[in-house]
Amino acid sequence: MMLMLPLWYVVFLLSITAHEGAHALVARIGGDDTAYLGGQVTLNPVPHIMREPFGTVIIPLLTFFMLHGGWMMGWASAPYDPLWEERYPRRAAAMALAGPLANLGLAALGFMALKAGLVLGWWEPLGAGFDNLVAPVEAGNGLADGAGRLLSVLMGLNLVLFVFNLIPMPPLDGASVLSGLFAPARRFVFLLRSNALGGLLGIVVAWNLLPRLLRPVYEFVLGMLW
User: Fold this and answer.
1) Which residue in the list 20, 52, 124, 138 is annotated as catalytic?
2) Strands (DSSP E) along the chain, which ranges?
3) Where do the Peptidase M50 domain residues begin and end (predicted)?
4) Which of 21, 144, 152, 208 lies 20 to 30 Å from 172 when distance is taken between CA atoms?
């Protein structure tokens, strides 16, 4: 388990940094410099860690050990101007969508690298676990084994982040996309956001929906990979 900790944490930091950096970049393009001025338009994880040390350091490490090295959870955030969101709802929707799309891009990168390795004969399908989808053809090749595990986590974790964040429940990005594109949804999202328990309710609902939404997506991707 300890050998997998650095691998998981590197992929986790890359994934959430890309997610929040994409939010910040698209917000700046759309006219909101809040996150840019906070140093969030970057793939350097340090500004994101400084903003959310609890969600980027403590919780990921804690959940990794609690779940026996099988998963890592946490969060980061990019600030934005609520008045800008109210004035430009479609731009705000684009900002919200940018984060999950960044995760989709990382998942695609992991998928393509794994596929290339399988085609070239570096790995063979294994499917033993979420973080171990392939095994090196050459037994004892530690470098190939480590690379396969890293790419497995990169693809899988970012698929989860993509699907989870697009569930249209506050405080997830899907709710901001929905309210930005469809005016009738704004009141519903506003009511949940303004309620002290709204965010918690959204997370609970999304967490229960995630397995049902993720399974067909993940199985489809594995079918294309193997």
Assistant:
1) 20
2) 123-129, 132-136
3) 10-187
4) 152
- Residue whose entry in the numeric block shows the structure tokens 């840019």: 36
| Residue 188: Cβ-neighbour burial (10 angstroms; 0-12, 13-18, 19+) | middle
Q: Which two tokens stand for residue 148?
A: 């396969």
CA-nearest of 83, 85, 73 to 23 is 85
CA dihedral 141, 220, 96, 23 (to 10 degrees): 20
The size of the chain, in residues, is: 226
Q: Map residue 86 onto helix, strand or coil.
A: helix
Pair 149, 7: CB distance under 8 Å:
yes
CB 137 within 8 A of CB 159: no
Three-state SS for 31? coil
Task: Report the C-alpha gap between 148 and 132 in whole angstroms.
Answer: 7
Token pair in block for residue 5: 């900790």
* 85 in active site: no
Three-state DSSP string of 152-175: HHHHHHHHHHHHHHCCCCCCCHHH
Q: How far, CA to CA in Å, does 223 sit from each of 15, 131, 219?
A: 23, 17, 6
Q: What pLDDT does 139 receive?
A: 80
On the question of pLDDT at 133 being above 70, the answer is yes
